């Protein structure tokens, strides 16, 4: 059977209309999340930007409106590191249904010291994985109220080669900022695949799809002042990398396709076309650790233990 990528041509600059639909983008105020929000706004949908910082969200919405006149945008205060606040945040959305959530927000710390949330969880793992794990639990009724709800989880190219230690998910023994980030992204992707298996088993109409942005660099990213400003020096310095990588505006394409393409199926992985690093979105095989169903199930159980919440309940 031909894949969705083979049966029709997907144009990143000619997106289908989505009037009447509502999408939530976590971390929609900056980085790849900003461009996901901007591109979804073009479709006529209502796009909710989940962000801790109202001022940054306002700046992002102003930037989007300057490029998409009449864009339907809202801000939702969302702090993924504060697990106990997430149910209240979902209640504050005041919507009857949600057609998709893009679990995009994430942190990659550069300090050598390990940091914890007020709940005692390692900050990177808590924000990138546990926060979305809990958020999806509270969003599930809204997603199931949509005839075709979707959970779109944004992982990372580096996450595909990371190793996850289920006995040390909090990185107490081997904390390194970059490797901790990669592990948290692997956890996110495993969560996305396991979520779809559980949704299918329960008969839910909601789909769970995983994507990654490839190699997305600021120096190759289109300027969106004040959200994203690329200097001439950065643009020139990034030209060599542009042969194999791309900007964050292009890194948003797999997530946007996972939200909008009606032929996308649950349990799929979407990434950039050229070596998984740059280019238009394509379907990728789910293999290696990403296909380890036992690891994913054990991570799910560990996440329930850490949070006291089960998205499949």
Summarize the helices and strands and which ones pair or pack.
Blueprint: H1 4-7, E1 22-26, H2 31-41, E2 46-51, H3 54-67, E3 72-77, H4 86-93, E4 100-103, H5 123-144, E5 150-154, H6 177-202, E6 207-211, E7 216-217, H7 232-237, E8 246-247, H8 248-251, H9 253-260, E9 269-274, E10 278-284, H10 293-307
Parallel strand pairs: 1-2, 1-4, 2-3, 4-5, 5-6, 6-9, 7-8
Antiparallel strand pairs: 9-10
Helix pairs in contact: 5-6, 6-10
Report on this model:
An eight-stranded mixed sheet has the order 3-2-1-4-5-6-9-10, with helices on both faces. A two-stranded parallel ribbon has the order 7-8. α5 (123-144) packs parallel to α6 (177-202). It has one domain (17-307): 3-Layer(aba) Sandwich (Rossmann fold). The chain is of the alpha/beta class. The protein has helices spanning 4-7, 31-41, 54-67, 86-93, 123-144, 177-202, 232-237, 248-251, 253-260, 293-307, and strands at 22-26, 46-51, 72-77, 100-103, 150-154, 207-211, 216-217, 246-247, 269-274, 278-284. The protein has ten helices and ten strands.
Summarize the structure.
By secondary structure, this protein is α/β, with parallel strands linked by helices.
DSSP E strands, number: 10
Distance between the termini: 34 Å
H-E order: HEHEHEHEHEHEEHEHHEEH
Q: Please name the CATH architecture.
A: 3-Layer(aba) Sandwich
Instruction: Provide the low-confidence segments as ranges.
Output: none
- What is the count of DSSP helices, taking H or I runs of 4+ residues? 10
Strand content: 15-25%
Largest sheet: 8 strands, mixed
CA gyration radius, whole angstroms: 18 Å
- The oligomerization state is single chain
| Name of the CATH class | Alpha Beta
- Portion of residues in helices? 25-40%
Tally of individual domains: 1
Main sheet: strand order? 3-2-1-4-5-6-9-10
- CATH homologous superfamily label: NAD(P)-binding Rossmann-like Domain
**Would you tell me the structural class of the helices and strands?**
alpha/beta
Mean pLDDT across the residues is: 94
